[in-house]
Every structure is written in C-alpha cells, then in structure tokens.
Amino acid sequence: MTVTGPFSSSGRSAQGLPRLPTPPTGWPIGSYTTYSDAQQAVEHLAANDFKVEDVTIVGVDLMLVERVIGRLSWGKVLGTGAVSGAWFGLFVGVLLSLFSGGAGITYQPILVGLVSGMLFGLVFAAISYASTRGRRDFSSSSQLVAGRYDVLCQPRNAEQGRDLLAKLAMRPSS
C-alpha cells in the first residue's frame, strides 16, 4: 500500500497526467466540507475495488487563511535569528572540521562556525525586522483551504461511484 499526500500523484501513469495546469474533468459523485471526508470517500471507493484512477478530489472556493501565531518583539526576532544562524553555523563548522585534513575532528572550525553563524543570524534578523518599521509586528502561518471538496469521476464509472458513496453516507457514524 502506498501512502500519498493530498497533492501527490503516485499510482497514476505519468503519460495520463497533463503537463500544463488544466481544469479537472469528470462528473461530481460526492461533495464534502473537509478534505478528510473527501479522502475517506475515495478510500471507501478503493476498498470496494472501484477504479480510483478515474477519481479526482477538487477543492472549490479556495481561500488563503493566515493564522496569527503571536506578537513579535526585538527579543524574539533576535533570539530566533541567533538560533537559526547558530544551526547553520554549526553545520558549516562540522563540514569544515571534517575536511580540514587533520587527524580526527578538530573543534576550532566548529566553534568558529557556531559563533559566526549566530552573529550573521542576529544581523540579518535585525535588518529584516527593522525594515518593516513596525508594519508587521506579528508572526503568522498561512494555509490554502477550500470551502468544499468535490469528488469527481470520469463518466464511464460515475454512476457506480455515486452508488458506492451513497452507501457510505447511509452508514451510521461511529
């Protein structure tokens, strides 16, 4: 069994997929309020030996949702910049110590990489935050969400798919 993500296409032959963005085709056989429900419907079709290669899940009424995570301050910005710079500096320092030519790992390049990474991280974070001039004093996370998710099927199997999903809808909720 292959596990795939919502945007992956494993299981479909590469020759059957369009190379350019194209609208989906097929007849609607189900409509769901969450992606999870639409995915469950397709899993139900697959469990009943339905030809799922003819099925497409389409997100309709797309919206960009930006969730505010927290307020930004100079302390948070500089701390985050220092930590991310330290990680990158540590990585570079370890690479330098491995290829320095001496016997074993030397710790001087690791320490230099760590300290210089922290400094660069601090400087770049400060410049970036200062350039906003207080217009964006919060951090957020963005996500593309659909208002509903339609399950489409190619016409040759749409009626059978619709019947299977009707049986799924009639099952008692657990």
Keywords:
174 residues, alpha+beta, Alpha-Beta Plaits, 2 domains, three-stranded antiparallel sheet, 3 strands, elongated, membrane
Task: Indicate the topology.
Elements lengths: L26 E6 L2 H13 L7 E17 L2 H25 L9 H25 L5 E16 L1 H16 L4
Antiparallel strand pairs: 1-3, 2-3
Helix pairs in contact: 2-3
Going across the major beta sheet, what is the strand order?
1-3-2
Number of strands: 3
Strand content: 15-25%
Number of domains: 2
Question: N-to-C SSE series?
Answer: EHEHHEH
- Low-confidence parts: none
Mean pLDDT: 87
Work out the radius of gyration. 26 Å
Name of the top-level CATH class of the largest domain: Alpha Beta
Number of helices, counting only DSSP H or I runs of 4 residues or more: 4
Q: What is the fold-level CATH name, i.e. the topology of the largest domain?
A: Alpha-Beta Plaits
Helix content: 40-55%
Structural class: alpha+beta
Largest sheet: 3 strands, antiparallel
- Give the second-level CATH assignment, the architecture of the largest domain: 2-Layer Sandwich
The outline comes out as elongated
Kindly report the name of the CATH homologous superfamily of the largest domain: HD domain like
Give the terminus-to-terminus CA distance. 25 Å
Keywords: Membrane, Transmembrane, Transmembrane helix
Protein name: Magnesium transporter
Organism: Amycolatopsis acididurans
InterPro entries: GSP17M-like_dom
